[in-house]
Specification:
Order of helices and strands: EHEEHEEE
Radius of gyration: 14 Å
Strand order of the largest sheet: 1-5-2-4
Number of helices: 2
Distance between the termini: 24 Å
CATH class: Alpha Beta
CATH topology: 60s Ribosomal Protein L30, Chain: A
CATH architecture: 2-Layer Sandwich
Strand content: 25-35%
Length: about 120
């Protein structure tokens, strides 16, 4: 099972909704492993992947999810920044990666602002 989420096309509320739905599916399948594949965009900020992954990790902790059931993987690059949420019934059954942009075609511009104390989890 997979869900695709294009982070640049939605707001934080949508990101939370996708994650909550994903957590629900994972909790219904207690033997499954959750894979979150992160694809950087063709044009992004130099620390964008790390900042967004950090936000997901904080939300996993905030929602008291078992962190050992999640694997977060860099999938390469696509036209726009995206996440894919996979559930695998078999431990270590790594999802297929499908980057569409070669690393040498990626342009980095500036940095994302890190969260300040008191900022929302997502």
């Amino acid at each position: 099972m997979t869900h695709q989420f294009k982070a640049d096309e939605s707001n934080h509320e949508m990101e939370i909704a996708y994650l909550d739905s994903y957590f629900d599916q994972l909790n219904i399948n207690p033997q499954a492993t959750g894979y979150i594949v992160v694809y950087g965009g063709r044009i992004n900020k130099s620390n964008e992947n790390e900042m967004r992954v950090g936000r997901i990790k904080r939300y996993i902790k905030y929602k008291n999810q078992d962190e050992s059931r999640f694997k977060i993987v860099h999938g390469g690059f696509r036209e726009k920044f995206e996440f894919e949420f996979w559930l695998s019934p078999i431990k270590n059954a790594f999802p297929p990666l499908s980057p569409t942009v070669a690393p040498e075609k990626v342009k980095f511009k500036g940095k994302m602002k890190p969260p300040a104390p008191g900022d929302s989890i997502l």
